[in-house]
Structure formats: C-alpha cells, structure tokens
Amino acid sequence: MAGLMFGVASTALSVDGADGAGEAPRADTVWDTFAAAGRTADGTGPRSAPAQRIETLLPPVQELGVREFRFGVNWARVRPDGVHTEQAALDSYERWVDLLLGAGIEPVLTLHHGDLPLELMLGGGWLERDTSALFGEYAADVAGRLGDRVSRWVTMVDPFGTAFHGYGFGVDAPGIVLLGGAFTALHHALLGHGTAVDAIRTAAGREVRVGPLADHTVADPATPSDADRTAAAWYDSFHNELVAGAVLDGHYPAAFDHLPGAALDAAAPEDAAVISAPLDFYGVRFEFGRTIAAAQDNSSVPFSMVEPDDVELTAAGWPVRADDLHRSLVMLHRRHALVPPIRVEVGASFTGPGEDERRARHLREHLEATESAVRQGVPVESFAYGHLTDGWEFGDGMTRPSGLIAVDPQTGTATPRPVLQHYRELVRSRTDPGTGVDERASGDIDAPGG
User: Fold this and answer.
1) Of all helices (H) and strands (E), which one includes residue 282?
2) What Cα–Cα distance (Å) separates residue 217 from each residue in 12, 101, 338, 383?
3) Which whole number is the average pLDDT over 31-47?
4) DSSP-derived secondary structure letter, 338
5) Mean pLDDT computed over every residue of the chain
6) What's the CATH superfamily of 5-441?
7) Domain ranges of the chain
C-alpha cells in the first residue's frame, strides 16, 4: 500500500463560535440546549468559543506541510429546521473548500459530529427512523453542491458516543438515560451513515471516497478474575464492535441479541445492507484505552471503568498508553476480513508543568504506534491530529485545550504551540518535500495471521 498521508482536523461545533466567524447563522443544536442547562464542565456551550476563520487557519496548515484538513459542516447551519437547506450556508462552506484547494490542501469534509439540529431532537432525534432519511437528504444537498471538488467525505464522527453517551448514559447531549434503549439511536445513526454513503456518491456525480470516523479503544480487565475478563470482553464488543460489526460485516455482535432494554425490532431486515454499504475507508479516532471491572449487581450496565495505577494522564484524565492504539488497530484488522484502508486520528489535552513536552511526546508516540501497526500489515493510509486549534470540547467545555494552536477563550488570539513545530518536523522527516506521503512505507504489506 502507499505510505501515510498526514493531516489535521477541526470540529464544526468546536470552532464555529457564536456566529460562525461571520458566516451564515446556525440554529441551535442539541448541545446548545444541553449546555444551557449547566451540564458541561464549565457551563459553556458551543457558542462560547471564539470563531475561527478559514483565512487564519490556512497559514499554519500550509506551514505544517500536511496534505489534508478535515473540517466539519454544521448540520444546524445548513438545515436549521432539519428539513430545508440554506444556500447561504453552502456558500460559506464552498468558500472554505475553494480556499483549501487553492492552497494545495485536500479538504476532508465531515457531515455530522454532535450538531443534530434541535428541531430534529424535538421530534425524537436519533430515536426516530425519519432522522436517518433526513440525514441522507442533507448529505445529498451538501454533496450536490461540493462533490465536484471534495473527494473525501466523513459521514459522521463517533456514532457509538452519539448514541450511548447521549441517549444511553446521558453524559452527553441530549442527556437521555435509556441505557440499552439507546440501541435504537445507534441503529438509526448507522442507518443514517449508510444512507449518506449512497447519497454522497450519487449527488457528487463522480468517484469520491466515503467512510465514517468511529471511536475505538482497547478494554483490559482490571484483574485476572473471570468476572473482570468477561466484563472487559463485553465492553470491547460494546464499544468497538457494535459499530464496526454492523458497518464492516453487516451484523451486530451476537452478544447483544439480548441487550437489556434494547428494542431490537428497530432494525428492519433490509437495514443491514444499507448500513454495511461498501466503504472507501474506515476512520479510527483513538483517545485512550479502558480498564474494565465487573459490575456484578448491575445487569443493565455490566461493567465499571477503573482508573489504572502508575500511568500518565491527560488533562481530561485519559491514560497515556500509545501501545493501546497499536493494539486497537491490529485487533480491528484481524477481526474484519474486508476492512478498507484505515484513517487514524488522535489528539489529547495537557496542562501544567511540562505540557509542551508531554504534547509532543504523545503525538510522536501515537504516530510511532500507528507506524508499528502498518509494519504488522494494518492498512493505514493516513494519520491526522484531531485538533488544529483549541476550541469548545463538548462536555468538557473550554477546559480541555487540545490544539496545535492555543486560542485565548476571551480574545480569540491564536498562538502556535511548540507541538505544531514538532508535528511539522515529524511530517517532514517522513515525507518527500511537498508530497505528504511517506515513501519509506511504500510497497505491499502482508496481512497478519490469526
């Protein structure tokens, strides 16, 4: 396979601010309402972050020497009522695309990451099957406008978190606690993904590359006990395989045929073919590995998370173990015979003494973990850092500065962090000038056995 391409990313809700930097206004999303109730770490909502303009983002991206910039289209800006498309919003995103292409940077366009329009939530959100169809219509409208120039499309980011954090455990928007009942939201989100895959290809009118960006992890048992091993295996299937199994193999793991509280009849027989539409890539967003113990008195949530001992933590409390990314990639590849090329995205927040060195080490070690997986036959095609700038980070609000570029939350002043220079050096050490492709990794790679 060809060598790695390098990129950076941003999220629409993280950098749009109150007015989208003077672009077309947007309607409220589920996160605006969730944050207004004081349910984020600092009480801030997505309108709290200083908006970032594409003109200010381009120079550092060019300086990095990366080939790609993944950015998000805000669903609530393009379709404020969830149904009708605002052409002025598409004008704004068209300008982003043209400026990126003019600078020699490939836009990777994301259609959904937490920005479900509030109007659709009032009708049931992802608990309603109609939302899947409306997402497909939205995807078709965006691809019909931008598909002649945008070649890479991400349907949605972290459908597992959207469903189970938002509708299952209530820790994210919309803040509903249905536990296993969130399976309905997951199924409809994945149905929306599959519907969008077809809609994008049809509306673009040319060959484009489409896939999701799913959150993956590893789940290690807290102790060698049978109970903890069973709980860790359950969580592994829950977090990783509910999405990967459905999207890559066309079915959910058998372990969830009796998920407590799940309305399995939400899945119609014909849905599997839509959800498992052939992909051009499969995105892996990796944050951190989990340590899992049994929760023997809770059949609805049969696991508990344990904070590991003697492990460095990020500002968000995530354990830093780059080898967990390597293990996650190898595991994904070995489990799924038809896994398409994989796109890896990482990122983390650090504060306090030594934060610059810790950011640089985290980035370098996770790139090296990815390269190690490639050497074992995992078909990784790209590596991206998921936070070009600081911004609003969902439940963490403005408390988790993760960007290569620091942004003052009051003034919006942007200041490159030392890690930006470090990333630039990592990219340059692995690429020919101006290609963004690692020639050293070229050539066919044998798949691992087992």
Assistant:
1) strand 282-286
2) 24, 33, 20, 17
3) 93
4) T
5) 92
6) Glycosidases (3.20.20.80)
7) 5-441
